[in-house]
Design a protein that fits this description.
The complex is a heterodimer of chains A (556) and B (588). With 556 residues, chain A is α/β, with parallel strands linked by helices. In chain A, the strands form four sheets. In chain A, strands 1, 2, 3, 4, 5, 6, 7, 8, 9, 10 and 11 form an eleven-stranded mixed sheet that branches. Chain A has a six-stranded parallel sheet with strand order 13-12-14-15-16-17, sandwiched between helices. Chain A has a six-stranded parallel sheet with strand order 22-21-18-23-24-25. Chain B is an alpha/beta fold. In chain B, the strands form four sheets. In chain B, strands 2, 3, 4, 5, 6, 7, 8, 9, 10, 11, 12 and 13 form a twelve-stranded mixed sheet that branches. Chain B is globular. Classes of the chains: A alpha/beta (556), B alpha/beta (588). Chains A and B meet through α2, β9, β10, β11 and α3 of A and β11, β12, β13, α3 and α4 of B.
Chain lengths: 556, 588
């Protein structure tokens, strides 16, 4: 929104044509809404519908405009997402007043009610990130003036600062610290090398596609599906397809083999990823490269990216997320939430579906997955299979745990009937005492990731906050949410309360409710159907091809 | 330092500390907790102490506690001063309840409270928002309990850019830092000061006194009478006296020659000042030097220092105020207010009186002056005198003004009748002079050029003011006051008050000019409030403040009451530092 050659507009509060009073301030995630009432405008010849509400910093520069929505007579809700005002940019550091304009004429400056003035501190927000060491702050204050209580919004991105007296030792430490840092400043060298390589491979980028993951040696399902779709569509005739799959996230930067990854990255003009690449936090991609993020496994209500700012986020105002040229999302409805989470403009969101779920939309592929998954089961495939995949909670030490001993397996098996069997999918050790011996032939413990494929042959899915909810919904596997600790989990780990209204299945607050639901066959299927309709309406098994066609326009 | 080892009873004490609410009053965080203690056991709610403990196991602050009703207690913490003249340090804190050396419980919170943390968090932006001191809260998950472990995250923060990092060669970065360092005035002055401290150690050993002001080119206010008294008592023969008086307000830091000040500071064993000295925000004084603040303002309402932290013009996290060895006030009751304002411990705020009151309260001075005043202002002869003395609006010396459109001179003139005349005396920072119509010259007089407002109080019968600290001296005359606060809310937002204005003012509050006129006509001044105000705000009503300061701080005769209080406080802080919470059994 910042203009390179700003137009000069004269304005003085004395020339206000009417009052614009901020009466209230509310927050939804990182979106702040000001309730503004226009006073003394009734008899004036202005068309309120064309008014714009401008956030102008103390240098007099327009930095962003609020989105407005009429909420009553002469009343408007002005909102802005402080983590993204457009162009993948958080509100810039500054102190802002809010001006009301009609075209290029400034008509008023927002002041505030005395009542709001008294509780400005309550409506200010601190968004911590980076383990609480940094913060993005949005506070409100009164501008010093004789006339009205003019409204100001102070926005700053902050890093930790010492509390001690300023001293020369600080300087000396800073300067002494740099040579050590210089010797190890790998990021500088990596960025420098990358820039050189990018220059060298500029021509290649127009027709090179990279599928990239840094989490493991195998591509995740979504990337695989898109790569296969490219091959099916004979894209290799036009594009060189590269794959880089290495678990490097946990390797210290200095021990990584940078030359290999830099070489590949510099050649790629289109890069598909499914998860966040940590190195993109500090390694900007060349301008002619497109980073495309596929929508993958997720628990829809879990706060991630910039939504996690409301608790404690991982990302600062500039981050790896901001480098996405496009993010593929599961649906229009999911795009809105993903845009907030990723800090991207709506135009960058492509609601094309989840490529990783394509296989679930194809009967043959589904059958194949089911057969493969059954091989891991220790009991007959004829059983009525319940997949139980609970999410680990942090214990008193912060280590993952789950209270398996509190699960009444006897009641669960009784409810499932004689043919019932349970696949307990968890990466946590399950205490022997928690599993009744007499059901040993009807229960097996598998890794958490096994749940995904097992859903293809499951009759029931019992979970709480795991990432496989979408899979179960697409496969129409009845789902029960054993969310006995939902509120506690939500406020400490960051979950959206809309889960209670939207979760695709029955929510049970106690295990006896789970048992009763199984006995009664009450799985709230209508919630699952509504969820699929709203968030997964595009899963027709052709998402990956749709992505390829959209991203590589004209490719057939 | 020998550590105090603690016994842990978190699992078996049966004591629960459950957070219910957090509210803020300026820099005070107030938590309401329910304290559940098993009956008949060894633990007692009244005996519990509450500590904010770092992850590293160091206790960095102790909460003040107050019993509310039933099992509810209020835990209060001044976040701008943890008792060590500094803010609660950066870190994530757990709050533990201890009885003696037994750790009985950690503070926990509910889901309902956790949902409110966003509005309970508090930010104190300072230096125009370039920095902010923030306190935020979060809860940790606990499988075993619905009451969640409560954590307090404290961070001092400085502005950080929002762009992707530019690729700067490390050598260039070093060069930039070096250039910054050698361009930085603070670095140069500190280097000079540190060297001068070594060179001038013998001056400090002699007990050199420095009288210091950065707000005027001469000594005024409290320093002038104090200096006069030093000379009268021939203290200059015993302690060399240096004076540094230079108005540096509003002058860019780089344009001031700081060397004379640094030189004087390095020589001084005792530094007396009566206002904020900005240079001491960034020059840390030598450990031998005692800094004694004889604050110029008595006890008004306007927030200052840390009790306006987070507001416009608030101080840095570390500032001049933090360096005071002692701060001098007029009354015990004012000590908590000024301790809060200066961010120092209350034990070091000593009620010794203000030197400038010495002459004001000297009967011979008054006797000699009053006839001269009537001679200078003959209008006042035989009349009752109203002194209209409001404070300024705006932020500083250059923007100070008063909005005269809020006063109706005609109505005031008519209300005067034959009984009253009015003297108009603005705050010295008011840049827009009042233009009095010629027609009112028989009852109105502008006395702006008269230097000492205190003198005018002798002949005043009613003062109309607003938020001025002039009420402090005036109240000693035990005469009525009207408070014309037409902009009370706005003023309270922009300048803020350190205590409730309406309930503290020693006179009648008028929200409109009509109410002022009516009060004059009805003689309704609520004068009884003045007597209580004087009782609360003055420990001494004599002419010996300077003498007390000399005796107590230069001659080492500080009364035992204060030395004992300081000793106790030092012991408390020492104990806090020695408490070792690293032994918590569940900590890894």
């Amino acid at each position: 929104m910042r203009q390179s050659k700003p137009k000069h507009i004269e304005w003085s509060a004395e020339n206000a044509k009417f009052r614009a009073v901020v009466c209230d301030i509310t927050w939804q995630d990182t979106i702040v809404t000001l309730l503004v009432k226009l006073e003394g405008i009734r008899d004036l010849p202005y068309d309120e519908s064309i008014f714009t509400y401008l956030a102008v910093n103390r240098n007099g520069r327009l930095v962003f405009c609020f989105d407005k929505k009429r909420v009553g007579e002469h009343s408007y809700a002005l909102s802005v997402n402080v983590s993204n005002i457009g162009e993948q940019q958080a509100v810039l550091n500054g102190t802002y007043c809010v001006l009301v304009a009609a075209g290029e004429e400034i008509l008023s400056e927002c002041d505030m009610t005395i009542e709001l003035g008294r509780r400005l501190s309550d409506v200010s927000r601190i968004f911590p990130y980076n383990h609480y060491k940094n913060a993005f702050l949005t506070t409100f204050q009164v501008k010093d003036s004789d006339e009205l209580i003019y409204f100001e919004m102070l926005v700053r991105n902050y890093k930790e600062a010492p509390l001690e007296f300023e001293s020369n030792t600080d300087w000396n430490a800073k300067i002494r610290g740099v040579p050590d840092h210089a010797r190890n400043d790998l990021r500088y060298n990596v960025r420098k090398d990358f820039k050189k390589l990018c220059k060298k491979h500029r021509a290649e980028r127009a027709h090179t596609v990279l599928f990239l993951t840094t989490r493991g040696t195998e591509l995740p399902a979504g990337l695989l599906a898109v790569r296969e779709a490219m091959r099916r569509l004979d894209a290799q005739e036009h594009y060189t397809i590269l794959t880089h799959a290495k678990a490097i996230e946990k390797i210290p930067n200095k021990e990584k083999n940078w030359s290999e990854i830099l070489e590949i990255l510099s050649r790629a003009g289109t890069i598909f990823v499914e998860d966040v690449i940590g190195n993109f936090q500090w390694l900007p991609l060349p301008e002619d490269a497109r980073l495309i993020r596929l929508s993958g496994e997720r628990f829809f209500w879990e706060w991630g990216g910039y939504r996690a700012w409301t608790l404690c986020g991982d990302y600062g105002p500039q981050s790896a997320l901001r480098q996405y040229a496009h993010a593929i999302t599961a649906s229009e409805a999911a795009a809105e939430i993903d845009a907030l989470e990723l800090g991207l403009d709506a135009e960058r969101m492509l609601p094309l579906g989840r490529a990783d779920l394509d296989a679930y939309g194809q009967a043959d592929a589904r059958r194949e997955i089911a057969e493969r998954a059954r091989e891991n089961l220790s009991f007959s495939s004829e059983k009525r299979l319940l997949v139980f995949a609970p999410k680990a909670r942090p214990d008193a030490f912060g280590e993952p745990c789950y209270p398996f001993e509190q699960i009444d397996f006897a009641a669960l098996f009784a409810a499932l009937g004689a043919s019932g069997a349970v696949a307990l999918c968890t990466d946590l050790p399950v205490p022997e005492a928690a599993l009744p011996e007499r059901y040993a032939d009807r229960i097996c413990v598998l890794p958490e990731a096994a749940a995904r494929d097992l859903l293809c042959c499951a009759d029931l899915f019992l979970t709480d906050y795991t990432a496989y909810v979408d899979e179960a919904a697409v496969l129409a596997v009845p789902t029960l949410f054993y969310a006995y600790d939902f509120e506690k989990y939500a406020v400490t780990q960051g979950l959206d309360f809309s889960f209670l209204a939207e979760a695709p299945g029955k929510i049970c607050a106690s295990f006896s409710e789970v048992v009763q639901a199984i006995e009664a066959g009450d799985f709230a299927k209508e919630r699952q159907e509504a969820y699929v309709e709203k968030y997964l309406p595009l899963q027709d098994g052709k998402v990956s091809e749709r992505i390829v066609r959209t991203v590589f326009d004209g490719l057939e | 330092m020998e550590k105090i080892s603690l016994s842990w009873h978190l699992a078996d004490s049966g004591v629960s500390i459950l957070l219910e609410d957090i509210s803020w009053e300026r820099i005070f965080m107030r938590m309401v907790v329910r304290v559940l203690v098993p009956e008949g056991g060894a633990w007692r709610a009244e005996a519990l102490d509450y500590y904010a403990v770092y992850r590293s196991g160091k206790a960095r602050a102790q909460f003040a506690k107050k019993k509310l009703e039933d099992d509810r207690w209020e835990l209060a913490l001044n976040v701008s001063n943890n008792g060590e003249n500094q803010c609660v340090p950066n870190g994530i804190y757990t709050i533990y309840a201890c009885q003696g050396t037994d750790v009985l419980a950690e503070c926990r919170t509910s889901v309902a409270c956790a949902k409110q943390f966003a509005s309970w968090n508090k930010a104190f932006p300072y230096m125009g928002g370039s920095y902010a001191y923030t306190i935020s809260f979060f809860a940790k998950y606990d499988e075993a309990s619905d009451w969640l472990p409560f954590r307090m995250n404290v961070r001092n923060l400085q502005t950080k850019g929002q762009r992707f990092p530019e690729n700067v060669h490390p050598a260039v970065r070093i060069k930039r830092l070096l250039v910054k360092k050698y361009k930085d005035v603070g670095t140069k002055v500190r280097t000079f000061y540190e060297e001068a401290c070594v060179r001038n150690a013998h001056h400090r050993e002699k007990g050199t006194i420095l009288l210091l002001t950065s707000q005027n080119d001469t000594l005024v206010n409290n320093l002038a009478p104090f200096y006069q008294r030093l000379l009268e008592r021939k203290m200059d023969e015993r302690f060399p006296i240096l004076i540094y008086a230079k108005n540096t307000a509003g002058i860019p830091k780089a344009k001031v020659d700081w060397k004379p000040l640094a030189e004087a500071l390095s020589k001084a064993r005792y530094v007396f000042l009566d206002d904020h000295v900005p240079a001491l925000d960034w020059i840390k004084l030598h450990k031998d030097t005692e800094l004694i603040q004889l604050w110029h303002a008595g006890g008004g309402f306007k927030s200052t220092g840390y009790n306006r932290w987070g507001g416009v013009g608030g101080p840095r996290a570390q500032s001049c105020h933090r360096q005071y060895t002692y701060g001098i006030v007029n009354a015990r009751q004012l000590a908590p207010i000024f301790a809060e304002a200066w961010g120092i411990d209350e034990a070091y705020v000593i009620p010794a009186g203000m030197p400038r009151m010495d002459s004001y309260l000297e009967p011979s001075y008054k006797e000699a002056l009053v006839p001269k005043l009537y001679e200078q202002f003959p209008l006042c002869q035989g009349k009752k005198v109203i002194l209209f003395a409001p404070t300024f609006r705006g932020t500083n010396n250059s923007t100070g003004h008063y909005p005269y459109e809020y006063i109706d001179l005609k109505a005031l003139y008519e209300a005067c009748g034959d009984e009253w005349v009015v003297l108009f005396k603005n705050h010295p920072w008011v840049r827009n002079p009042l233009e009095l119509p010629e027609a009112y010259a028989d009852k109105f007089l502008d006395v702006q050029s008269y230097p000492r407002i205190d003198d005018l109080f002798y002949i005043t019968d009613l003062m109309i003011t607003d938020y001025s600290s002039a009420i402090y001296e005036y109240s000693l005359q035990e005469k009525p006051m009207l408070f014309y606060a037409f902009d009370l809310e706005k003023y309270s937002f922009t300048r803020a008050f350190h205590r409730d204005y309406e309930s503290t003012i020693p006179g009648k509050l008028c929200r409109s000019w009509e109410q002022v006129i009516a009060a004059i006509q009805d003689k309704d001044f609520e004068e009884e409030k003045v007597h209580q105000y004087v009782k609360d705000h003055f420990d001494f009503m004599d002419s010996h403040a300077s003498d007390r300061i000399i005796d107590w701080f230069l001659l080492g005769e500080l009364p035992e009451e204060f030395t004992e209080r300081i000793r106790r406080r030092k012991e408390e802080m020492e104990r806090l530092r020695r408490m070792d919470f690293t032994t918590r059994p569940i900590d890894k």
